[in-house]
Amino acid sequence: xxxxxxxxxxxxxxxRLATITPSIDSVAAxxxxxxxxLLFLFLLSxxxxxxxxxxxxxxxxxxxxxxxxxxxxxGTASHLYQNTNQVGNVTTATVSGLQAGTRYYFxxxxxxxxxxxxxxxxxxxxxxxxxxxxxxxxxxxxxxPSNVVYGTALSAVQLNATATVPGSFAYTPPAGTILAVGNxxxxxxxxxxxxxxxxxxxxNTVSFSVLRAPLTITANGQSKVYGAALPALGASYxxxxxxxxxxxxxxxxxxxxxxxxxxxxxxxxxxVGGATAVxxxxxxxNGALSVTPARLxxxxxxxxxxxxxxxxxxxxxxAGFVNGAGPAILSAPVHLATPATSASPAGTYPITASGAAGxxxxxxxxNGVLTITxxxxxxxxxxxPTNSLVAGATQQFAALGTFADGTKQDLASSxxxxxxxxSVATVNASGLATAVGVGSAVxxxxxxxxxxxxxxxxxxxxxxxxxxxxxxxxxxxxSYGASSxxxxxxxxxxxxxxxxxxxxxxxxxxxxxxxxxNLLLVGPSGAKAVLMANVGxxxxxSNLTLTFDDSANxxxxxxxxxxxxxxxxxxxxxxxxxxSPAPAGPxxxxxxxxxxxxxxxxxxxxxxxxxxxxxxxxxGGWNLTISAVTSGSVSLAQQVPTGPGGSTPQAGxxxxxxxxxxxxxxxxxxxxxSLSGQTGQAYHLLTSTDLINWxxxxxxxxxxxxxTLIDAAGASSSRRFYRVEPANAPSAx
Length: 733
Description:
By secondary structure, this protein is mostly beta strands. It is 0% helix and 48% strand.
């Protein structure tokens, strides 16, 4: 048996066919052993006649001295051998009886005396020439390709012919060609053998079909508003290939719809069809045209009427009807309503529009306004809380209008206001008067041709005293807790009257984190105000002068570095908690809390630090600047005649000559008032400390045209104003 195995072209074998030689001398084929390993088949000379037998040669198996001989296997298909020749222990043999024009395949094995067989040698083949001699036609195999869809380029899937001998194919049409649609498209293959001496050049053809490509034409969906023109109809195309488009259609698509300009709201079909193309199988998909509602705005018309008259007919305006339509086409008309009646007071009332409906319209309803104007104005009476103001004060005047229907209305906001002396008092468009300087001015209002007037006296405030009280004792601000001293006191004495203004100044303020310092001022009466809490930032400051004044332009910042200046009292965050004996909160942050109180007595400044690790001091102490009104001041808020004959108007339509003629301070602080009026006229005597808030202190009837009253509590207040009015006049504020 062969013990040597050699690999050639991926096969394992022991025997190697060395030579194939036809028995006819003019034809020779040999298997050669190259470098002891490879064997090749070649023709020694061009054959002249068909060979009926073939000489074979192979390498001996020198590794197996006990072999019995060799067998030749051959047949007409590769590795399928129908014939066997046992030739003995030789290395050449002749195979006879071969058919002309047929290809045969050969392999050799050796066998042992016991009948064991080696693996076969390499396989060799040989084409027996035709009986007439010369080249023969190779066998060409070409399976008919499957049908393709238009647009498929020719490739190896279709161009895949094979031959039984080496050579090359040329195809017509070539690879990459896209064939037109057809049922019998012919492909031609020309085979050129590598061995043109033994084999002829051959041509083969196959036929197959090119099918139409699917193309879908879809009508585009469209929409339009009811009454609008029809939009242009269009289509979308799915399936064009190779860059082709609508221009490649033999007949273009046609589009139409059943909708028109006048079509009602709804959906209407868009039909598409008619398109043809040689290379496409066309499917059509219809679309839809949506008609949407038109916008219609219905607005209730604005109306007006005089109070007491009949409510006018309510109407509406329409914007948005199309196709010449009007309100008659609405399935539900608009409903117009107003809550106003002929008895409604003057003013404005809504006119609501609702309920309209129309199938082809999206309706927006807009409300209107009914304006009821007052009946004719017959009188205009000007009034004010007081006829006297201190310079700088303001006061709202009223203009009471009486109408023909008996109703009354304050017309201050709509009347035209004037003043006879702008240097004494001014008045704005709504009747707010401002006292400018001492004197008298007449304030008038005009409406619908009627004018009402009222005189206004402007007086100066009683004299005030301004005194500074100070302590230069330093204050040590300890870390977390009360300062020393606690509190720091200032005693005030010798001031009469009440506080009108107060400021506080700290001198030489230093601290490592001012944000930790809380300052509380407590007055003699127990009133208290925070000057500074949780403000001033956390940066170290030194030797600052800080003044706290309600009229300052700015407050202290909670985070910015503290600097010297004048500031409003400021607290950031929650109310501070100061150690006892400081009074508990809550606290205000305004020095006006001391206004109107007596300044005499002890004032206390409580200074405390609410955080550990930081401390400071107020090296120069602190001071109070107090402005106080002198006590015992009384003034006359005189009634200024405005009615016929110089009398004061009364609420009932008559007149009164009630008046305060003079005031006299009596020993013991009493005030004597000299009054005048009609005998038997009921009256009220009123007093005020600020010319704004008035209080009735005495009511009676005039015993004579001239009479005297004594106000035993006249000097109990720092200042006091008087006026007299009829008992049936409107109540004073």
